Amino acid sequence: MPSRGWTPSTAAPSLTPEELQAEKDSLSTKELVEIASELHGRQSFNCNDIEGDPCRLDEALESFSDYLQNRLPAKLTQEYKEAMENAPDLVMKETNPTMFLRCERYDAEKAATRCACHWKERVALFGRERAFLPMTLLPDGAMGCSEADMDQLKGLNVFQAPDDANGRPVIFVDRAKGLREVEYDRVGWLRANWYVWHKVSQDEDYQKRGYVLIINLKHIDIRKNG
Fold first, then answer.
1. Mean pLDDT (whole number) for 21-41
2. What does the pLDDT read at residue 154?
3. What is the pLDDT of residue 41?
4. Angle between helices 108-126 and 74-86 (to 10 degrees)
5. Does the chain have fewer CB atoms within 10 Å around its N or its C terminus?
6. Cα(69)–Cα(80) distance, rounded to whole angstroms?
7. pLDDT for 132
8. Contact 164, 206 (CB under 8 A)
9. Of 5, 203, 208, which Cα lies nearest the Cα of 104?
């Protein structure tokens, strides 16, 4: 599933304690809550409030489907509808509506847009001959059918570390070690990343609480090596 944009940085900002306190004092209560949610996995919105109410859940799912089928621009939903025609069971299994609804706090329009973007990017990255295959490492899977992409996946060096103090999963990517072992191919590397984060997104706890991502980029020129 596609993530919100981010800009990598190799240097932490240098602020005095007084400057940090002044910045904190300038924030609204809403902004402080959002920051706490990002840093500590604490959310003022509880998915269980909706998922525990069958009527509200059904309403959200119906609205999600309506946006994808009728209300979003046809150009945006083209790949999603192709996926539904070619592999409807796969669509429900790998891009279940609840995962997108949880991500967007049950805003049906935003969730449907995210789902449509997922399939648009999946087709763009894997091509139509592979995008509608299961996202697995098996020989008949979207990743497993390409030895070159499997090599890039090995080069990611992804590990799961112990959970953080707030119970969120911690994922460590040793990109520096990977580049010493595998020759970099940009498209294959993007496909390998897609596979990893797609698998991560399937976990219900990750969907509700998020996760901590740590990447080792020591001695890496990210302009050349992703």
1. 74
2. 84
3. 59
4. 70
5. C
6. 9
7. 98
8. no
9. 208
